[in-house]
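Example (one chain per record):
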Amino acid sequence: MIERLKKLILERSFKYSETPTFRLVCGEMSKFYFNCKPTTLSPEGQYLIGNLVFKVIRNKNIQAIGGLTLGADPIACAVANESFRRGEPIEAFVVRKKLKDHGMVAKIEGNVKPGDRVIVVDDVVTTGQSTIQAIEAARENGLMVVGVVVLVDREEMNGRQNIEKHVEYYHALITASEILRFCNRSSIS
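Predicted structure:
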């Protein structure tokens, strides 16, 4: 399953250039870029991600999984769906980027309550700032953040190290170096 997910990311979500032409959210320029939405929003991507992340977190005694909208949303929903299918339901939740100005004025949406043990997810980690934002929002709302699972770790700008200052558990399904190796292997095949 993981090899198929790498191939799907390579086909749908990865761009590479010999010169740094891609501006990252942190402002830096890079030779490669991940836009994981074409993978995380696809039926096959949802199936693969739901299965793989569920296997990683199923023994962590958690009640919910979620993160900062928009990158985390399809991942959390895929895991929630897979967990229900397997008879071990885990709720999905969404962390808003900014507070609503109407209704319940909630920063977090979903069927979660203070004291729930949760995993924060993200699609791509570079500096880790969006993941850390989600961790902080979850904690401010009384959730117990058990750890972080990311789809792709770019392995740059201390993203993993920055996140590990906030949680004890961190897991990346895929790293940029794996995709780059996979890319080189695929191009000569």
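Caption: The two ends are 20 Å apart (CA to CA).
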